[in-house]
Amino acid sequence: MSAAIVLGLLGLAGLSQSAQLMQKFAWRAIDYAFPSEAQRMQAMQDGFYIPENNLPVGIEIWKNKLFISVPRWTDKGVPSTLNYIPLDVAYSTSPKLNPYPDWATNEQGNCNGITTTYRIRVDECDRLWVLDSGTVGIGNTTQQVCPYALHAFDLKTDRHILRYQFKDEDVNANTFIANIAVDVGATCSDVHVYASDELGYGLLVYSLEQNDSWRFEHGFFHPDPLRGDFNIGGLNFQWEAEGIFGMALTPRGPMDRLLFFHPLASNREFFVPTSVLKAKPNKDSYRQFQALGERTSHSTSEVMTDDGIMFFNMIDENAVGCWNSQTPYSSENQEVVAKDDIGLIFPSDVRVRYGHLWVISDRMPNHLIDKLDFVNDVNFRIFFAPVEELIRGTICDARPSYDHNGYGHPLGPNGISHLSPAATYPLQPPSRKPIYSYPISNRPYHRG
Ligand SMILES: *[C@@H]1O[C@H](CO)[C@@H](O)[C@H](O)[C@H]1NC(C)=O
Ligand SMILES: *[C@@H]1O[C@H](CO)[C@@H](O)[C@H](O)[C@H]1NC(C)=O
C-alpha cells in the first residue's frame, strides 16, 4: 500500500492516535485555597463552599498561571468563579484553586466583580478578558443577578482595568453567552471582543477604542435540527437549542483576520471576516458569513495556532481533533490527535499557549443530567502536550512554506483551499502511539 493510501484511510475520522497528552492535574472534587483551614470549615458549614457544586469549564494560560473558571450553577456553594493555579511552585496533582485576582472580585452578586464566567481569554498585551454572564443557576434555574459585562485585568499588576456592561439591545430574553474571542489589531488599544450568544443566537462585538458594542444575527448561529441528539459519557440527551458557541481567529497579521465559529448542536463550521464584524451590521453583512464544511462530531471549543492549525474538542468522541486551515474543511482533512474514553469525557476547553495544547475535561453532561461521584471517581483533568509532537505524522503536520508576512486567506471564496489536498499529505505515515496519561484512579467511569 502506498503511503498516500495509508494516510487516506487513517485520515478518516478517528482511526489514528498520535497523541501524547500528559496529565497535569486531576481532581475528584474542586477545592479552594481558603486563607485558613478554619475558614474552609466555616465555608462548608455555611454552604459558601459545597464541593459537589463546583465544575470547572474553561482554562487559560499566562506565564506561570493556569486560569480555571467555575460557573455558579447553583445559588450556593461556588466560592469563586475566576481562579488560577500557580504553575511555578510546588503543587500536588490536585491543587487548590486561588481566586483571581482576589476573593472580593469573585463575590456572587457584586456587579463590579464577576459572578459567573465560563471562558476567559488572555490577549497579546498581557490582559485577561473575562465575560461575566451575571448568572446564578443553569437552564430553568437561571437567575440574572447582574447584567452581562466584559471585564479586563492587567496580568502584570493583577489590576482590574475595565468593566463594560453590554447594552440592553445587545441581548434578548434567551441570551446565554459562555464564550468569547479576543481580536487584538495593530495596537493594544485596537481590540475587538466577540461573544457568542448560544441560546439567543447572536454574535456580540465590543470595540475597546469605541467603548461600544453591537450585535449581529444570522441563520448560521442557529442549531441544526438534525444534530440535537448527543451521546456522551454513557448518556443520551438532547441539546436541541444550542446555537453558536465555539470560535477561533486566524493568526494576527496584516490581513483581515477570519473568525471561525460553529453552533454546538451542529457539525458545521462557518466563518466571517473580522472586518465585517468590526463594521456594524448593515444590509451587506449577511452575505459575508460563509459556510466552510463539516466535522464528524459536535464541538464546543476551538482554537487556531499561529501556523494556522485548528484544534477543536470532539465532545461525542472523547477526543480532540485537528485541521490544517490550508486544506478544505472536511473530515478527510481532520484527524483525532488525542482520544481517551475515560480521561477525555467532555473535553470542555482547548487552548494553545507557548507551543503547547492544553485541554480540560470535566464530564459536564454527567454532572448536569445525572450525578458525578465526587468521592471515588476522578472527574476533572487537565492535560497538555507540545503542539509539534501532537500533530507530528498526522494530516495536520503539513505546513508548506507558510507566508507569515502576509497571512492570506487559506480559503477561496467558496471555502475551498487554493492548495490541492494531495499537496498537503505528510510524507511519513502517522505514528500510532498510545495516549499517555497518569490517572490518579484507574476506576473507569460508571454511572450510579
Ligand atoms: C427544570 O428543568 C428540569 C429538567 O431540565 C425539570 O425536571 C424541572 O421540573 C424544571 N423545573 C421547573 C420549575 O420548570
Ligand atoms: C464606556 O461606555 C459606558 C456606557 O456604555 C460608560 O458608562 C463608560 O463610562 C464608558 N467608559 C469609558 C472609559 O469611556
Automatic annotation (TrEMBL):
Residues 427-448 are annotated as: Disordered. Keywords: Glycoprotein, Secreted, Signal. It is found in: Secreted. Residues 1-18 form the signal peptide. Transmembrane segments: none annotated. It comes from the Eukaryota. Belongs to the major royal jelly protein family. Controls the pigmentation pattern of the adult cuticle and larval mouth parts. This is Protein yellow.
